[in-house]
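Go through the following before class.
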Amino acid sequence: MYGTIIGNILGTLTHIDGQIQTVGIDCGSEGLKQIPYEQLVLQGDVVICIPGWRIDAQKILREKRLTLSRLKALMGIMSENDATQSDADVIHDTYKTKLLELDDAESKVRDELSVRLEELDSQERIIKVMMFDAKVQFKSEEISDSTFETIQKHCNNLLERLSHERVEVGNVQRRIEELSLESIELTQPKKEMVQESAVSYLDSSGNTSTGQQYVLPKPPAENSESAPQTYADQQDNQEESSESNESDWMSRMEQNN
């Protein structure tokens, strides 16, 4: 698809009804490859092979986009007419189940795209190393100018094809992410309402419990300072009373004598 030659077509395998099942391709040193007919597009005398990850991604995007579109329409009908609530709930659950199934398939496509990006990065590093090594050989006069230009030309063409595929993989990842966010926005509000009501209930119960808590009063700072002085005053009063009692007793003894 990106300009890389895979090989020569040998023939086809067909079902009993005559429909083409796979196409056999002679890939040189890699031998025979059977490509599913769905991945092939005929343009003139050339057959273009569509990558498997692109076929899977297009299927997921098409089905999820249609499901989200129908879910939006259904929610619009439900908001306009409450009489259809019971009938709409059944269809609504069906669409949500379909979205969950698509999410599982989407996860596999995401992994497939990530693996493909890693393969592209690995191939790009190898090509750049080969180009640099060819440049060293050219500078050391191990290869001729024409040979170096040929190597550089083919390497640049391959890097360009890898760049095109990387851009397309990134675009597919972006579209998948956009549909995932749209799906969350459509299916999340009910959960958020439940969470918000639960949080508000916890807040109200928490405020009530905190309002019933008893707070111990803090001791005033003056009491701690005046306590020693009060104790000292009491001691002085006791000493004065004892001295006055003693003086009264002495005076009574003198009178008796």
